[in-house]
Amino acid sequence: MNLNEEIKKLKEKKEVAILAHYYVEGAVQDIADYVGDSYYLSKMATEVPQKNILFCGVKFMGESAKILNPEKHVIMVDEQADCPMAHMIDAKTIDNIRAKYDDIAVVCYINSSAEIKAHSDVCVTSSNAFKIVSKLPQKNILFIPDNHLGTYLSTKMPNKHFVFHHGYCPVHQDIRMEDVKRAKQAHPEAEVLAHPECSIDVLSLAHYIGSTSEIIDYATKSGGESFIIATEDGVLHKLRSENANKKFYLVNEKQQCLGMKMNTLEKVYDVLNSMENEMLLNEELRQKAQAPLTKMHELAE
Ligand code: 13P
Ligand code: SF4
Q1: CA 38 to ligand 1 center in whole angstroms
Q2: Phi first, then psi: what are they for 160, rounded to 5°?
Q3: Which of 105, 132, 220, 265 is the most exposed place for a label (fewest CB within 10 A)?
Q4: Which biological process terms from the Gene Ontology are attached to this UniProt entry (predicted)?
């Protein structure tokens, strides 16, 4: 059986749009209709004509698609595929901090649970966070849950007062400054491209900082010939297929997201057959979580 052919037939027959993040394995990216970063995928989820969406990513991505499109069936490849950072703050902590300030906006990285979004004012992704936070009238910004992205933003916005939380991405936190220095010694000609979920130490060594799709765009358009990649290794698939003549090096051996790598071609085939693993949300929670996501889409334009 040719799995790719079978998946193609099934998705057409069952009217399914397949959305995949750049961190899932290359074979899964190849059968997807849309591949991109978190912002692009949340936008495409509102634009695809099909009534069913199969999400190859982690839970918060499928949840966001469902929050924005209650009328669609959003199906996950693997219901266990999750992002640990999405659960690193709770609603009570948010409310307690909010109560201490008269003038505060709760800015929630999209890598968060629906419950956390429901207690926030606006969502952001790594590609639009600067633009959106700059447009907010509030001086005080509670940035949750990612401490590293928040810290990076605060260095670019000295006029705002940031309050941080201690959330982090385990994959990006494990990309250490020493590893980057070692990679630079081994490949002195290479430019370092880093995701803003890396620590500020690592970001201080980067030539370019951006979301997954921004990193791919930068390397593709750049005149440079070699790059050290400080993000999850799934981006190498697109980087290498678009840039056969350029060289890409990882910083260490651990740049893999467990949740993202739970999305396999075999599971895509099985779930297209069964149409199980539907994302279901309590309607009251969905409506509360919709407001900050909708605000993100308005302010990102
Ligand atoms: P992007 O929005 O850059 O694709 O990031 C998603 C993510 O989970 C990074 O760890
Ligand atoms: Fe979450 Fe990190 Fe995986 Fe992104 S790479 S989904 S932030 S655990």
Answers
A1: 6
A2: -100, 155
A3: 220
A4: 'de novo' NAD+ biosynthetic process from L-aspartate
